[in-house]
Design brief:
CATH class: Alpha Beta
Helix content: 25-40%
Number of domains: 1
Distance between the termini: 6 Å
Pfam families: PRAI
Number of helices: 7
Catalytic activity: N-(5-phospho-beta-D-ribosyl)anthranilate = 1-(2-carboxyphenylamino)-1-deoxy-D-ribulose 5-phosphate
Strand order of the largest sheet: 7-6-5-4-3-2-1-8
CATH architecture: Alpha-Beta Barrel
Largest sheet: 8 strands, parallel
Bound molecules: the ligand O=C(O)c1ccccc1N[C@@H]1O[C@H](COP(=O)(O)O)[C@@H](O)[C@H]1O
EC number: 5.3.1.24
Pathway: Amino-acid biosynthesis; L-tryptophan biosynthesis; L-tryptophan from chorismate: step 3/5
Strand content: 15-25%
Number of strands: 10
Shape: globular
Protein name: N-(5'-phosphoribosyl)anthranilate isomerase
Structural class: alpha/beta
């Protein structure tokens, strides 16, 4: 079984190289200033130019306004926009139309009641990304918290758009996560870091190796 992997929150050439040479099919850059993984657009542009053809560069945004999107999209060669905030289906449609780029919408899962949002998001998004609902504490990020949700909620489910699994994945648990959910695409950030916001190239390789063994 081929499982395609996204390594998110890259901000250094070394970890980007580990992702690219290790077989990642997507690399992600975080354009959300409160995140420890936030990267300046100019640096992201330099990194994205190192990404070979065939690997998709993903820009992660949280409730971005048009000015910020223009600032980033105008200088970083992106293939896919990931929206990880409270964007409505209408806003997703607007962003797709304005930038002519596919959009992946994050759907945050805390329990079975959150699954309906995936169907709603799929009305306009090109792809879905399932992540854990962030903890209800003031300082929590809207994603990238290294928290897994109950994977059995996705077991046996079908979705109208291609989807990716994220939330607390690690080299150790990724096989089980894929087995339970049936995911064919996966996304990791915190699980390949040695400290918040800093990717460890060895962990990036370990994650990609674990995914390649599936
Ligand atoms: O990574 C971040 O800092 C981030 C900030 C704001 C929204 C989303 C973010 N990351 C995304 O969250 C999921 C899960 O990440 P993790 O593996 O649990 O750390 C993933 O899709 C990241 O792209």
């Amino acid at each position: 079984m081929t499982v395609l992997t996204k390594i998110c929150g890259l901000s250094e050439p070394e970890s980007l190289r580990a992702a690219v040479t290790g077989g990642a099919r997507y690399v992600g850059f975080v354009f959300y200033p409160p995140s420890p993984r936030a990267v300046a657009p100019a640096l992201a542009a330099d990194l994205a130019r190192l990404v070979p053809t065939g690997i998709r560069s993903v820009g992660l945004f949280v409730d971005p306004d048009d000015e910020f999107l223009e600032h980033v999209v105008g200088q970083v060669p992106l293939d896919l926009i990931q929206l990880h905030g409270k964007e409505t289906p209408r806003r997703v449609a607007e962003i797709k139309a304005r930038y002519g780029m596919p959009v992946m919408k994050a759907v945050k899962i805390g329990g079975p009641e959150d699954l309906a949002a995936a169907l709603e998001a799929a009305e306009t998004a090109d792809r879905l990304l399932f992540d854990a609902k962030p903890p209800a504490k003031v300082a929590a990020l809207p994603g990238g918290n290294g928290i897994a949700f109950d994977w059995t909620l996705l077991a046996g489910r079908r979705w109208p758009k291609p989807w990716m699994l994220s939330g607390g994945l690690t080299p150790e648990n990724v096989a089980e996560a894929v087995r339970v959910t049936g995911a064919t695409e996966i996304d990791v950030s915190s699980g390949v870091e040695d400290r918040p916001g800093h990717k460890d190239p060895a962990l990036v390789r370990a994650f990609l190796d674990a995914a390649a063994r599936l």
